[in-house]
Design a protein that fits this description.
By secondary structure, this protein is an alpha+beta fold. It has one domain: Ribosomal protein L22/L17 (Ribosomal Protein L22, Chain A). The chain has three helices and five strands. Strand 3 and strand 4 form a beta hairpin. Helix 2 (36-44) runs antiparallel to helix 3 (51-69). It is elongated. The chain starts with 9 loop residues before the first strand and ends with a strand.
Length: 120
């Protein structure tokens, strides 16, 4: 989903990603305010599982900027990234003495906003 927000900012959103938001936030915090080539490099060598869907959303945002808004991919910077909590899948695990405990399988909505680099 691409949407032109203020001053040529372009965003991409991935919804219902099966990664806990708390874990995904650790990844998106590392790429905020970085050039997109540096951000993709950081995500490529990040050992966390959330790096894969975040990289996918970042590549989608870059493609949206190039194809829908005519911006150059090399001149983009990650303006904002955030992870919102999606619906939680509730599952049950058998426990001792016939009881059960709940397992929460959390989902995330990952948003990446890219914008042209500001020249100083």
């Amino acid at each position: 989903m691409a949407q032109n927000t203020n001053n040529n900012e372009v965003r991409a959103v991935a919804k219902y990603v099966r990664v806990a938001p708390r874990k995904a936030r650790l990844v998106v915090d590392q790429i905020r305010n970085k050039p997109v080539d540096k951000a993709l490099e950081l995500l490529q060598f990040n050992n966390r599982a959330a790096a894969v869907p975040v990289a996918k959303v970042l590549r989608s945002a870059i493609a949206n900027a190039e194809n829908n808004h005519g911006l150059r991919g090399a001149d983009l910077v990650v303006a904002a990234t955030y992870v919102d909590e999606g619906p939680t899948l509730k599952r049950f695990r058998p426990r001792a003495k016939g009881s059960a405990s709940r397992i929460n399988k959390r989902t995330s909505h990952i948003t990446v906003v890219v914008a042209p680099r500001k020249e100083a």
